[in-house]
Write a structure and sequence with these properties.
heterodimer; A: four-stranded antiparallel beta sheet; 13 strands; about 35% helix; B: two-stranded antiparallel sheet; two-stranded antiparallel ribbon; 12 helices; membrane (chain A); transmembrane helix (chain A); TIGR02186 family protein (chain A); CHP02186-rel_TM (chain A)
């Protein structure tokens, strides 16, 4: 019993001391992105510190959710059409990953899966319906990634810059924030990696929200749609009619 | 300069929708068609979600057809009586078409049916218009044929409730005009457009209306159809992006006026052959889309 207690005490001390060594930090310099009338995306720089000799992975994601996409297929062996709706569950709408080196060179597979780092890891959690077998899931997942990357909502790069100063690793990465990312709260997680394992994490958030006239218009379209519908028609008629009046003289010439 | 769209939730260069509106508005004023069959796919190419593209397009057609209808009304080219009768049928046809889409969605493959409808309708109309206009430009023999009373004309004359449409200079049973409006309404709802490009040849070839009155009356009918669609899309589906609609309108309103002025200078046959070429080009584009393998096998859901 005494030996057992000593064993647990040692384990406890190791855990405590490990946490004391692991001091990764993360700062997103632009954590409140405002969408106004002239918004065209933004830039977000993520930086922080970690233990010397560590590798770093920075992951920015939206919360997991469901997405419905249309699958195209060949009909009658002749024409390509949207043949069915596919539902993708447990997948984030936005997934940006940055690392100091290629993931396969710094992270063990089970660690990647555990922390949802990389497209392969995400696939393990994703549910696609309807799907008949693993091969089909693999094909559809690859198409999903292609679709998301084309939409600028998914991307993975090994471009984190790091330097060793004062006995610490300093890291920095600049991310082009896509305008395609809708308003919402996005999680930024920095992973400190050593010997293929995640030894520490740090988190922050990026809040993207609409402001000003843009916010007013989108709220009206959603919450006061009767009034919004009438306004849309009136504006359309007024614009068309005004131009008609402007062209009155030109019309008379013929 | 970029602008962020509140409903489409995307950022777009202001220049793009204005130019797009100008080009489609020009066609609208020139041929009397709303341009929905061109604008919606073009907006989707700019990255607008299909549902928002279709609904916002309806709003811009309201503006384009307002100025177009106004221009043609001042020129005395709108047959209001004919327009109202077509609208009665068109409205009921639109409701039937929406129900057909609902049923087809349950059965599946609705997109396939829509595109095939596009290919068949545009292909038949475009080919017919092209051949007819070309032969009319070459010689006047077709005009002689027109003077002969066909079986259809005889049948139309045998129907009750004959009404004289003074502005168009034709006499038809209200059953004919309402039925024509009804059929076009169904097709317009299935194809997700205002129906102008279907109504123009039908009014010209079947109802034997003069081309200038056809264009004015078609714009008048499109105006009311799109007012209804815009309101329903904004109220029920929340898919009308007013900022995008305004940008498209700026272009299309001017385009429609320029189109109406150019249209006055071009002969009817030339106008029809131009429209036939345009319709055939769109048909060929859809056929190529249908048979070419896409680079990504997934697309956004929405629209119809």
């Amino acid at each position: 019993m005494k030996k057992l207690m000593i064993f647990f005490a040692l384990i406890f001390l190791i855990v405590i001391s490990n946490n004391a060594w692991a001091k990764i930090s993360v700062i997103a310099n632009h954590d409140h992105i405002t969408i106004d009338l002239f918004y065209h995306g933004s830039t977000v720089s993520v930086k922080g510190q970690a233990q010397p000799g560590s590798d770093i992975v920075v992951k920015i994601t939206s919360p997991d959710g469901s997405q419905v996409l249309r699958k195209k297929g060949k009909v009658l062996d002749l024409v390509w059409m949207s043949v069915e709706n596919l539902q993708f569950d447990n997948v984030p709408n936005l997934y940006i990953l940055r690392s100091t080196k290629e993931l396969k060179d710094i992270l063990k597979e089970q660690e990647a899966v555990k922390n949802k780092i990389g497209y392969s890891a995400l696939k393990n959690f994703a549910q696609i319906t309807p799907v008949s077998n693993e091969n089909e899931k693999e094909e559809l997942w690859n198409e999903f990634i292609k679709f998301k990357e084309k939409s600028k909502l998914y991307n993975v790069k090994a471009d984190i810059a790091k330097s060793e100063e004062n006995g610490q690793t300093h890291y920095y990465t600049l991310i082009q924030w896509p305008y395609q990312a809708p308003p919402g709260i996005y999680n930024v997680t920095a992973y400190e990696i050593k010997d293929g394992k995640v030894i520490d994490t740090a988190q922050t958030q990026i809040n993207v929200e609409k402001v000003g006239i843009l916010k007013m218009l989108s709220n009206m379209a959603k919450n006061n749609s009767l009034f919004y519908g009438i306004v849309c028609i009136l504006i359309a008629i007024l614009a068309g009619f005004s131009v008609g009046v402007l062209f009155k003289k030109a019309g008379k010439a013929h | 300069m970029y602008i962020y769209l509140p409903v489409a939730l995307t950022s777009i260069n202001v220049f793009l929708p204005v130019c797009l509106g100008l080009a489609v508005g020009l066609l609208s004023g020139l041929f009397g068609v709303g341009g929905g069959w061109l604008m919606t796919p073009l907006l989707m190419m700019l990255g607008i979600q299909p549902a928002v593209a279709a609904a916002t397009d309806a709003a811009q057609i309201v503006g384009a057809s307002t100025s177009g209808t106004y221009a043609h009304w001042r020129l005395g080219n709108v047959d209001f009586k004919m327009g109202f009768h077509l609208l009665i049928g068109g409205f009921l046809g639109g409701l039937t078409g929406v129900e057909i889409i609902k049923i087809l969605r349950v059965i599946g493959n609705v997109n396939f049916l829509i595109k095939i409808t596009y290919v068949i309708m545009l292909g038949v109309i475009g080919t017919f218009m092209f051949i007819e206009s070309l032969s009319k430009l070459k010689n006047k023999t077709v005009e002689k044929k027109d003077k002969k009373e066909s079986g259809i004309t005889k049948f139309f004359k045998s129907l009750p409730f004959q009404i004289h449409y003074k502005k168009s200079g034709v006499t038809h049973s209200i059953l004919v005009t309402a039925t024509v409006g009804y059929i076009v309404g169904i097709l317009a709802a299935i194809m997700g457009v205002g129906g102008g490009f279907l109504m123009v040849p039908v009014m010209f070839y079947l109802l034997k209306m003069p081309m200038n009155i056809v264009i004015g009356t078609s714009l008048f009918q499109i105006f009311f159809t799109c007012v209804e669609v815009t309101f329903l899309q904004a109220y029920i589906n929340h898919t009308v992006d007013i900022l995008l609609a305004i940008l498209l309108l700026i272009g299309s309103s001017f385009g429609a006026q320029i189109g109406a002025i150019i249209g006055k200078k071009i002969k009817g046959e030339q106008l029809r052959i131009l429209m036939a070429i345009l319709v055939l080009m769109v048909t060929v584009k859809i056929i190529i889309e249908l048979i070419t393998a896409p680079s990504i096998l997934l697309s956004p859901a929405g629209g119809h």
